[in-house]
Specification:
This protein is α/β, with parallel strands linked by helices. It contains 38 helices and 30 strands. It has an eight-stranded mixed sheet with strand order 5-12-13-11-10-6-9-8, sandwiched between helices. It has a seven-stranded mixed sheet with strand order 19-16-20-21-23-22-28, sandwiched between helices. Helix 33 links the parallel strand 26 and strand 27. Helix 1 packs across helix 4, helix 11 crosses helix 12 and helix 34 packs across helix 35. The longest helix has 24 residues. Bound molecules: thiamine diphosphate and magnesium ion. The site of magnesium ion has 6 residues, from helix 16. Magnesium ion (MG) binds next to helix 16.
Length: 1111
């Protein structure tokens, strides 16, 4: 009794709130009855748990303290009081903990294990107080319960890592949910884990909870056992929330740290990544205590950057109140975010960054990220005339290129923003292609020196398919840029449309998951959180060379543009936005309050920037002209300088070169003995070799000789597209595959000369929009490369129509941006059905900028001047030699123009579609027109009909003529280059046959193909010759040439060509009174070709009948 009293007396002061009469109870049932007794612990700063109900009274929280053991305990206690070492270490620990006020179930610690624990290993018995007796209270075997609880903690940790982002506080407005989902998954509810519960009971499990607006997520405060919060749990190896010396933590602290890492202003989405190493890398950067802290200097720099970003928008708003600029207000953090990524990347070795972005905040990026001179930006608002050629573009589409010192890293950095059209996201793969090309030319095979950043709007990122196409290119060997950093300026609206109506995915960024890119969602009103994710993104890219997404969850302070009224459609959102303080105001107030800066410093930074803007504004007022060249994203330094723009190099090559390339292209690999070539390929190679020996080429050989001879001259050649390595029609075979060893290949064109330029031939992903954009971007980096994209069938180009319309056809005019890209479009009516027949030449031709009514000045430079003046070249070659020359001409030209070639299918193997070396040697060149060279040409007066045509139909017409015995009565002339139209040669050809009826024959339907393009040009060609006799009007013709032509014709007392065309829309009438060039071919149609083979053959036969009718 005495002993008991002394024990009681000894413990009494240690037990807060314990009264003497309760001591026996305490001994038997546990020493704390309610949570108030543990106020100090309960007051730990986990806000969401403090509201929970007190746990029920515990019976025997220390089960070994039952009635029958009290005497023994008493003895032990007395002994321990005298000498702590006199009792077993576990009792020592227990009494110490109890004396220190440990909660029930917490005082006991099992003795240390004999085994030495490894990193992350601590003996489970050291963590779990119930240990041996817990089975008594729970009815479960002891180990199972302990293990269950630890597994539960592991599961909780994993749930935070996996799904914590769903309940992070991401929306600065506090009204939306970045993932469009208000529920809280059960995995994020503690009750789900049944701490301290009988496994059969689920009375404490909650239903799925909902979180609303700004209230703290209540789900995590649901049913739980308060006592569990203070239990210590071992930290698994998959978390970094413990400091270096912390291998175990109380559950409360575990939850608190997980909350801080995953549920505050950053939502990290990464657990879908299939790499433990990468997951751990990310966990470490977000979980490590203190990882997100920023020093005072960092904070000041950040504030200065936010101030400039905001100051720029404010300045523009003040000076040009109603001018469209697609302001960044509400997402000003985009600027510091980009700058942080650039700083970090520069620090990690990047020297060049290529960027693509939409309208929003573009001017701010140019000003504050690229540091484009402000006066140049402001001058764009003045509506000045341009000093150089081109039609220009609106200011928020223009590109730029700047090379400057990065002040943070003290290293040079080149920044380029690629010009883009209004079409959102269309620029993405162009940026990638340009980046890839730069890496290629620099030998930067790991992407350490050049990288790309792509900016997106939330609606466009989730809505536009090209974004997916861009991601799918990201890891392909010949298309990867070794990691792109994507930043989404997620203002939670697209024009007037709410996210719930613009996407079906939870986040606007979900498309990125397809390539295992980590996604960092961040509340853009927390500048320091934004900084952290941006640094991590840059490090991620530098470490793993894979894509990463930063989702800046923000808002749009104004309407879609500066003239729009957002209250029409988003009244609640905008009444909230009107009350929002800007991030600059909030952050400066925070830094002032914490003493990092003074109010004076804040004002000073703001005023200084305003002064800079004012000075630039004054300078801009003095500008009288703008220069589009100032806005070019990649100047080709040295390419144009010293060149005569109207002088072209030769395209023919010496026979020796043709032979050499031909032989190499026809040979098996040097190690042929080991490399097993397919028998069919062996036959093809043999046939090629025979052709070389007979000085002949077919299509594949002609192409290989064009590529090979350019490679010899040091010109890099790249051929990309679906199945291009073999060729859709199995004619090319640029990659030979070892038949018994997987992935062992041989590329003959890579093995022509020891010092040749590199040749890349690559099968692409099944994408046209994305891949054509990529190749266009690739072609923009270096003019001394032949970059070709081949469509599987020509008609598939139309899924890339945006690239053709917005970039290829108009790029030079809008942005003085040249490109020599080549589009190879298999074309021809061969009974394959509505698709796979026509590459729709009409679509390209109507986008050509040539005036149909103007016969250009006939000077020596006629042909090259035409090329110089056109926006693109469209051709349909009928011989391998001409194909060879036109490819080589792309490089021989002193400027660059896109080339669209309609390429053959059946002609690839047509016995007549072959060329001799004689047509490819030095003295030869590209033939814009291939005139009749047979019998008819020798007696032109006797010719009764001239049939003009283009492409494969030539061979059909020729055979039909022969079959009908009309070789001397009919001349057939091929137009190989359709645009620019060979007015001069066509005029000569018409004049050569004075007595002939003139026909245009095409296999495409009348409303398709080339007819509508050539028809008015035939007319101009015919008229051109007679006008010239009257004395030629001034050349080159002004844009209103048709007006001038009419005046001139009136003076000469005859109707002008324009008048004639207006009155006879389907006929071209010659001045000399000859009939018009009339049409032979299929009638109009909605579909490009019939689906019936029989009908096709019928139509084809009828066409030939019509062509030779009347003879
Ligand atoms: C391909 C395409 N379709 C439609 C438009 C018209 N448009 C311009 S901006 C815009 C909304 C874009 O929303 P978001 O991507 O979220 O960018 P934000 O304007 O909100 O910054 C739309 C539909 C366009 N520019 N491009
Ligand atoms: Mg938006």
């Amino acid at each position: 009794m005495h002993r008991t009293r002394s024990l009681v007396a000894g413990l009494l002061p240690l037990i807060p709130g314990a009264a003497p009469e309760r001591l026996a109870v305490w001994l038997v049932k546990g020493y704390v009855q309610n949570s108030s007794a543990r106020a100090p612990l309960a007051a730990l700063n986990i806000r969401q748990y403090s509201a929970a109900p007190p746990p029920p009274t515990q019976a025997a929280a220390e089960p070994f303290l039952n009635g029958s053991s009290s005497v023994y305990v008493e003895e032990m206690y007395n002994s321990w009081l005298q000498d702590p070492k006199s009792v077993h270490a576990s009792w020592d620990s227990f009494f110490r903990n109890a004396s220190a006020g440990a909660a029930p179930g917490q005082a006991y610690q099992a003795p240390p294990s004999l085994a030495v624990p490894g990193r992350h290993e601590i003996p489970i018995t050291a963590l779990v107080p119930q240990m041996s007796m817990s089975g008594v209270s729970t009815g479960l075997p002891i180990d199972e319960k302990i293990i269950d609880d630890h597994l539960a903690v592991q599961a909780i940790i994993r749930s935070y890592q996996t799904r914590g982002h769903h309940i992070a506080d991401l929306d600065p407005l506090g009204i939306n949910l970045a993932d469009l989902d208000a529920t809280i998954a059960p995995e994020l509810q503690l009750a789900t884990y049944r701490f301290g519960m009988d496994h059969d009971s689920d009375s404490q499990l909650s239903e799925k909870q909902t979180h609303y607006e700004v209230a703290p997520p209540p789900a995590r405060s649901l049913q739980w056992q308060e006592k569990d919060m203070d239990r210590i749990f071992k930290l698994p190896a998959t978390t970094y929330i413990g400091k270096p010396d912390e291998r175990a933590l109380p559950l409360r602290e575990i939850l608190s740290r997980l909350e801080a890492a995953y549920c505050r202003h950053i939502g990290v989405e990464f657990m879908f990544i299939n790499s433990l190493e990468q997951c751990n890398w990310i966990r470490k950067r977000f979980e490590t205590p203190g990882a997100m802290s920023l020093d005072a200097e960092g904070k000041r720099l950040l504030l200065a950057r936010v101030t400039r970003a905001a100051g720029f928008e404010a300045f523009l708003a003040r000076k040009w109140t109603s001018e469209k600029r697609f302001g960044l207000e509400g997402c000003e953090m985009l600027i510091p975010a980009m700058k942080t990524i650039i700083d970090k990347s520069s620090e990690l070795g990047v020297e060049s960054i290529i960027m693509g972005m939409p309208h929003r905040g573009r001017l701010n990026v140019l000003a504050n990220v690229c540091r484009k001179p402000l006066e140049q930006i402001f001058a764009q608002f003045a509506g000045l005339e341009a000093a150089d050629d081109g039609s220009g573009d609106v200011k928020y589409h223009l590109g730029t290129y700047i090379e400057r010192l990065n002040r943070v890293t003290n290293k040079n950095i080149r920044l380029a923003v690629v010009a883009n059209p209004s079409h959102l996201e269309a620029v993405d793969t162009i940026v990638q292609g340009k980046t890839r090309a730069e890496q290629f030319y620099k030998g930067d095979s790991e992407g350490k020196k050049t990288m790309s950043i792509l900016l997106h709007g939330d609606a466009a990122f989730s809505g536009q398919g090209i974004v997916y196409e861009t991601f799918t290119l990201s890891d392909l060997p010949d298309y990867t840029t070794r990691g792109t950093i994507h930043i989404v300026a997620n203002n939670q609206i697209g024009f007037t449309t709410d996210p719930r109506h613009s996407r079906s995915s939870p986040y606007c960024t979900d498309v990125a998951r397809v390539v295992n890119a980590p996604i960092f969602h961040v509340n853009a009103d927390d500048p320091e959180a934004v900084m952290h994710v941006c640094k991590v993104a840059a490090e991620w890219r530098a470490t793993f060379h894979k894509d990463v997404v930063v989702d800046l969850v923000s808002y749009r302070r104004g309407g879609h543009n500066e003239i729009d009224e957002p209250m029409f459609t988003q009244p609640l959102m905008y009444s909230k936005i009107r009350k929002m303080k800007s991030v600059m105001e909030k952050y400066s107030a925070k830094l002032i309050e914490e003493g990092t800066v003074t109010k004076e410093e804040v004002d000073d930074v703001r005023n200084k920037y305003e002064k800079i803007c004012e000075e630039a504004y004054v300078k801009a007022q003095k500008e009288t002209q703008i220069r589009y060249k100032d806005w070019l994203d990649s100047p080709w330094s040295g390419f144009f300088e010293g060149k005569n723009p109207l002088k072209m190099g030769n395209t023919g090559v010496i026979e020796e070169t043709l032979k050499h390339i031909g032989k190499r292209f026809s040979s098996t690999p040097p190690n042929a003995a080991e490399f097993v070539v397919h028998k069919g390929i062996e036959r093809i190679l043999r046939a090629r070799m025979e052709m070389v020996e007979t000085r002949t080429v077919d299509w594949a050989l002609g192409e290989a000789m064009a590529f090979g001879s350019l490679l010899k001259e040091g010109i890099h050649v790249r051929l990309s597209g679906q199945d291009v390595e073999r060729g859709t029609f199995s004619h090319r075979h640029h990659v030979l595959h070892h038949q018994t060893s997987d992935k062992s290949t041989y590329k003959p064109l890579c093995n022509l000369y020891p010092d040749q330029a590199p040749y890349t031939v690559c099968n692409s992903s099944l994408s046209e929009f994305g891949v054509l954009g990529f190749e266009l971007g690739y072609s923009m980096t270096n003019p001394n490369a032949l970059v070709c994209w081949e469509a599987q069938f020509g008609d598939f180009f139309n899924t890339a129509q945006c690239i053709i319309d917005q970039f290829i056809a108009s790029g030079q005019s809008k942005w003085v941006r040249q490109s020599g890209i080549v589009l190879l479009l298999p074309h021809g009516m061969e009974g394959m059905g509505p698709e796979h027949s026509s590459a729709r030449p009409e679509r390209f031709l109507h986008a050509c900028s040539e005036d149909p009514e103007t016969f250009p000045a006939e000077t020596e430079e006629f042909a090259i001047r035409q090329l110089h003046d056109t926006n693109m070249i469209v051709a349909n070659c009928s011989t391998p030699a001409n194909y060879f020359h036109i490819l080589r001409r792309q490089i021989a030209m002193p400027f660059r123009k896109p080339l669209i070639i309609f390429t053959p299918k059946s002609l690839l193997r047509h016995p007549e579609a072959k060329s001799s070396f004689d047509d490819m040697v030095e003295t030869t060149g590209f033939k814009r027109v291939i005139p009749e060279a047979g019998l008819a040409a020798s007696q032109p007066e006797a010719v009764r009909k001239v049939i003009f045509c283009s492409g494969k139909i030539y061979y059909e017409l020729k055979k039909a003529r022969e079959d009908r015995g009309l070789d001397s009565a009919v001349a057939i002339t091929r137009i190989e280059q359709i645009c620019p139209f060979p007015f001069d040669l066509i005029r000569d050809e018409i004049n050569k046959y004075p007595n002939a009826e003139l026909k245009w024959a095409q296999e495409e339907h009348k409303n398709m193909g080339v007819w509508s393009f050539v028809q008015p040009r035939f007319h101009t060609a015919m008229q051109g010759s007679s006008e010239r006799r009257l004395s030629t009007p001034p050349q080159p013709s002004p844009p209103d040439a048709s007006w001038w032509r009419r005046q001139w014709a009136r003076l000469a007392g005859r109707p002008s060509s324009a008048d004639v065309i207006a009155s006879h829309p389907s006929a071209s009438v010659s001045e000399s009174g000859r009939g018009p060039v009339s049409y032979v071919g299929r009638g109009v149609s909605a579909s490009p070709a019939t689906g019936s083979k029989r009908q096709h053959l019928k139509e084809a036969a009828q066409l030939l009948e019509d062509a030779f009718a009347g003879l």
